[in-house]
Description:
The chain is an all-alpha fold. It contains 13 helices and no strands.
Amino acid sequence: MTDTTAHPLSADGGSAATGYAQRQALQTRRRRLRRWAWGVPLWLLALVFLLPFAWMISTSLKPDADAFLVPMQWIPEDARWENYTEVLFGETSILPSFVNSVLVAVMRVLGELATATLAGYAFATLPFRGRNTVFIAYLATSLIPAQLLLVPRFVYFQQLGLYDTLWALILPGMFTVLGTFLMRQYFVAQPREFAEAARLDGAGEFRIFSRIYLPSAMPMISALAILTFVWSWNDYETPLVFLSDPEKYTLPLGLTSFVDETGAMAPGLSMAAAVLSILPILLVFLVFQRRFVHAMTESALK
């Protein structure tokens, strides 16, 4: 006769496997619910932040009379692409201002990277008397509001003959406390063994800086380059104070030149110019996005 009674061990094993599968399925469902619970509000918040940009793009394709219609037309019935043609090639073209902004931003980025990396390396690795005191005093200058320095800088640049030149915008932007602080903190966290080995082999400080420290700091340098470019590109206050010739205006000042026959702002042209002005920032961020996120994450962990 055949014994039809199930083996007790196999029954226990089947129950354990079934319980394990159920627990895994439950955990998977919880993870999905948690993901949706975080994802949906974040997507809604992102849409709220994107609404002004959507309004800007929509208005840039409308005639001025339709810019403030109620209710708003998100999709123009007859897209007015002539606004972009007028902004680029019309009498008040933004191309000269665009070129000035690119020149100022590139020069400020190059100068900032050069001074911040060298100063950060010196404060982090070179032993000299009063190093920490000088660094703290340098950090303390950031407590002074920039607006308080506008008048002294105005007088100083006027005496030097730099007023109403792009150098009045470029030179102050080449030296920032934040850039030096970020690079100093990054170099302090780096291991010293390779540098000490290079010194034993007779390498000088600049060789150690350029061959050992600088290559490892490329993520932080990329992040600093993005921040400096964005600050320079969006700077409105400094050009407003130090520039008077419209031919030397940067893009933020150039955006104010689009007015209608009554002297009021022309919404269509202004928004078309604003759309074009944000494209370089988007391009720079997309190119350096991974390095920027990597640098910020690494700095937070350290």
